Amino acid sequence: MAKYDSESNTLDSEQRITLDLLTAIHNSDRISQRFIANELSIALGLANTYLKRCIKKGFIKVKQAPANRYAYYLTPKGFMEKTHLTAEYLSQSLGLFRVTRDEANTIYSCCQKNKWRRVVVLGEGDLVDIFVMSVPTKEIKLYHFSKNSTIEKNSHEGLLSIPGDKLDSFDAMIICDMKNPIYYYRLARSVLPTERVFAPKFLGIDKKPVIGKDR
Looking at the structure, do residues 111 and 191 belong to the same domain, yes or no? Predict the structure, then answer.
């Protein structure tokens, strides 16, 4: 879990650089260490140090490319770390509730426009609660699925849990899990087309695939 500077109430410098590094690589794997250093406004040697540290921790995978170059890829472990750091940063500096509520309003507006009324939120945690609070209840019926919940018991009051084998009977799905969004994205895409699968933008899962298997 990310640590914070108690005085500034933000991510400390090490966590901030790690987040920026993981984000830069997630956005584009065809980058050099010099590009990373310039992008993060840090010395080239420091960029090299953080790259090696993230590779050692299993956050980044490196492959040799033509002309003695290297391509960097985010692993599922690195993706989850980026998601955690992003959520922590939003919670402290921008307000997770405000940002997620705005995302929810945009997603629900799209569902209303397309008359997708039966919508499933996937996952566990604060995002589920915020999407539940933001739903236009008269026009959209919200359901819930989590790999950890059962039909008989649902920790989110007012939501009806559904079994995984019924997911293909719904109109749209929203990824609301910060711990393992990749798992739920792949699950949603296995039963619905891309345009019916949504997620808050800060989760980053709509950018490009992650190398490896999710846990």
Answer: yes
Cα dihedral value 38, 75, 202, 134, nearest 10: -170
The number of helices, as runs of H, and strands, as runs of E, in the chain is: 7, 9
**Cα-based angle 181, 23, 49 (whole degrees, multiple of 5):** 120
The pTM of the full predicted model, rounded to 2 decimals, is: 0.67
> Which band of pLDDT confidence, cut at 50, 70 and 90, is reported for residue 172?
very high
Residue 177 near residue 184, CB atoms below 8 Å: yes
Highest mean pLDDT among 7-21, 42-56, 83-97: 42-56
Say if residues 48 and 34 touch (Cβ distance below 8 Å).
no
Given a cut of 50, whether residue 215 has pLDDT beyond it is no
Domain interval for residue 42: 10-93
68 plus 143 within the same structural domain: no
What are the tokens at 124? 């566990």
Give domain status of residue 2, yes or no. Answer: no
Between CA 88 and CA 84 the distance in angstroms is 6
